[in-house]
Amino acid sequence: MAIAFLAIVFFGAFITLFVMFFSAIKEAEAQAGTIEEKFVEVARPPTRILTADGVELYRVSEENRIPLKLAEIPDHVKNAIIAAEDKRFYQHNGVDEQSLLRAFVSVFKQGHVGQGGSTLTMQLAKRLYNGNEKSFRRKLQDIAFAYVMEREVASKNRILELYLNQVYFGEGAHGIGAAARTYLSKNVKDLTISDAALLARCVRSPSRENPIKDPKGSLENRDVVLHIMHDEHMITDSEYDKALAEVPKLNPHPPETTAAYSAGYAMHFVQHVLQTLQEDDPTLDLKGGGYTIYTTIDSHLQRLAEKTVQRIVEENRRMKINQGAFMAMDRDGHILCEVGGVSYKRTQYNIISQGHLQPGSGFKPFVYATALREGTIGMGDYLSNAPIRLPNGSGGYWEPKNSSPRENASGYSLEDALALSVNRPAIWTILKVTPRVVADTARDAFGFRTKLEAYPPLALGATAVSPLEMAEGYSTFMLRGDRVRPYPLAKIVGPDGEVKKEYTPQKFGGVFDPRVCEDIDTLLRAVVQKGTGTAAQDVPDARGKTGTTNDAKDAWFTGYSDGVLGVAWVGNQKIVKGKWTVLPMADRVFGGTTAIHIWRAVIKEARQRYGHRMEPDNTPPVAQDDTVPALHEKKEKPPRITDADMPAGTPVDDPNAGKAKPPEHTIPPAPVVNPAAHPDTIQNDPGSGGGAGAETGTSERSMRARSISRSRNRRGSGTRKRCRWKCVPIPACLPIRIARRRLLVRSRGAKLRSEFAGFTGRETRRCRLSIPRANRNWI
Fold this sequence. Notes:
By secondary structure, the protein is α+β, with helices and mostly antiparallel strands. It has three domains: 2-44 and 65-245, Biosynthetic peptidoglycan transglycosylase-like (Penicillin binding protein transpeptidase fold, Orthogonal Bundle); 309-700, 3-Layer(aba) Sandwich (Beta-lactamase); 720-778, no CATH class. Strands 8, 9, 18, 19, 20, 21 and 22 form a seven-stranded mixed sheet that branches.
């Protein structure tokens, strides 16, 4: 009876097993057609971000995988995997009966399926279809799928290729290519026999028995695999001995993420690219792999820019400088390099694409350009330097001062006012043209998208703007009235090889009067030749403007040379109450002594690679379209305000007096700059009182002290005079930018003063040599 009962039970179990296996076979056959899709999915490369010259910056996918063809994998690497996981791989038909017998014995003895019994094909079936559940039913499914795969779908080599690309090796590495990079920092073709054996055993228990988690255990597992390879005649005796003696050189810096790889530089720029892609197409699945993103930067310039920013910051740490940023672009708006900060590990906040900082005196060219276009001032005008006292809207007064007490002349020529970065002439200018007109022009003509406060401190750069906006604004001067927007992307190629999107320059034609742009270009050239930007004189054809804010929180230099434009910034960032905050630097920090050195080092190289001389544009202004106000329209010139009309401390009358709106020169409370929400948002130190641009500095003051204040002689006389010492006759009215000076002679008084009344500084210097030294006195 007992034997009969056991026979019935055994027969019933056999029937049940047969039915389950037959059902699994049918299921496997139904899904067999999807095996090629699995090959395509695994073979899909990760999404890659490349520089303009083809250097890989970044790679991202759902899994950290480097797809490889079987021919790209050395034989000893294949043999190591086979020896470790399925040494009879080429002898069975997908199911190894000997291994299965061990598995069934494990079921009856332990009540569950232990390790062993699975061939490479069965392991692949488990990963592709059946999951990681340890049960008798799943084992039957693995057998059925393995049998169907080898019988109807794929060859042995095809299955081995898919396995080597699909299997998990631990530490986020999927496939032998990623494992070689993760553990040994090598390509697969460079793996030794010892390396291959070390990696092959990781598959058994990838989370525990890998070289990072258990170095000692990994060496023991390597030796086991080498022993099998030797016994199976996969390696010779000498290769076996050499491999045993070899000490693996593990990767000292394993990847920090399992889904991405970085080239180690340009990470702020990569962040900018990813942000731009997300804004352009939120549905773009980069982690799905297969995309190739072509950017605009030059890998050589990018490395140079990063090293230069780091060097300048390090050289000036004693000046309380610990952060810097830089970007450069060509005349088409291609960003050639972008350094968003000194260290991406220290902070991921990109100052170039996310930062909003006060530009200081770097904003003055936009004020003067607006005034020139409106006819409020002329290139030969003598701008007032009279003291200013305006109500600030909160019961007090705003009394802006120049950066140096030596800047005390009654007035300055327009060229000297900008070159020497004198503050009060810029404020008088914005009061004449009105802050609202300047703010509107900055938005409509120069491309500023940040809301600019229409109040007098705007002349000194008191409203925070983005470095990208500064670059776009200055491009209007460089392109003689056209404007171009900086952009980081060239094109996107999809997984199918088709171009999904191609980026073209965003140019805005005829946004400003080209003749005024020529004038501003001349003024910016004077900044480099004789003003606060003389440190950039070794860059041919350099034009630019320095900018330094109150308490030296921000130091800038923005400029261009032969069609290449750059923006440099340095500052002092520290974490205050959990947020990155911009704090004051040392008193001797200025844009013309720090940031300018970043600019000159990179632009000098960039102009050699991408620059070409800009030809002057003598064409008349282009008519505006309906979307942009008519900026070139000649408007009635407002009343001129001379020095006689502006006694010290007397504010200028508002040209809009009598209208319902409050006076333009009434200063509302300074706005609070709130950059875009970000964990590293940079804010101004609330205790420092904010700041408008104040271009100051020991070196700049000395330059100003040595410089002779020049302005056009406004007498208008064309007569020729000869001084009493028989000098060569010189016109009484000389060209623009020749300053007026008077010679005072102690002993001869009014008589000599009348002799020199019609002469400019250049004339009096020539006649001065004829006067006895005791009688000379310059003021």
